[in-house]
Design brief:
about 20% strand, globular, 5-stranded parallel beta sheet, Rv3660c_N, 11 helices, P-loop_NTPase, Rossmann fold, alpha/beta, 8-stranded mixed beta sheet
Length: about 325
Amino acid sequence: MWGTVGCMNALLLSRDPGLADDLFRLAAAASVELAVPSSAAQARALWTESPLVLLGADLPFASYPRRSGLVLVARAESVELYRHAMAAGAEHLAVLPEGEPWLIDRLAATTRPGPAGKVVTVTGARGGAGASVLAATLALVAAREGLRALLVDFDPLGGGIDLLFGLEAGPGPRWPELSGLRGRLPPDALTTLPAERGVSVLSHSHAAPVRIPAQVLDAVLLTARATHDLTIIDLPRGQVAGCDHSILLVPTDLRSVLTASTLASTLRSPLLVTRGPAPARLPPSAVAEATSLPLAAHYDFDRRTPAAAEQAGLPTKGALPSLCTALLPLLQ
């Protein structure tokens, strides 16, 4: 569908009149206007200028270069469509009508002043790799550097990442209070989270684990981008739609490397962090070669860390905090 160019809150590209009508309705609900190019040449010119692009699934994704702020919109989901979304570098696949609340919030976000915060996931190649400690230390270092840091626990069976900060008995919402969310998240919902040492923490509870619906996570992360400079997700497995980077933590042992090789293809913009010591003297460069990932950093396990974690006293000095300090510029 081609028309005239309106304001530049968002660019709409679709030849499906019904889909376009729905997107105009959602844009009106978000109090924004959609720009609709009058020609293919104008579409290419506006592609890089618009803060947000809504690309209908009826158009070929390969016709456009990769960019941030790209949302694919469809009426039905499929494995192939998700693959196309990943290949196009889309931040999200919005399936209507289920994805309408998220899309309204995303459109409204284009009118908010200031840059959006970044979202980073941290995944370990195996259990016990130290991903939770790495995620928590990264959040601590970010807060020390003056960033508004949010640590999100996405492991329902992990016992609650708030334990690393001594916040397990503290007031504030956890995932169970947000799991039934419908529609947009109130702007101040993340301001009452438990916090310690400059880090806000959204943790699972220590009682029965809850499943977090995808639309709830989307709503939380959309608000997190507006309220925090860096959101770090402790993610045991899988992928979070719309994250900016994925850190894959791989101990330098054969089992971890083999698992990491499989995980690497499922992550968005992955960065490799290796952890020693290496039982078989496997160098970090060999892990990078085996996983086909860029080696961002390496550190050796500190035997003092488990005791420090038990006492909610993760250090901000030493090998791991230094590594996190070096990682921060790569994540912003």
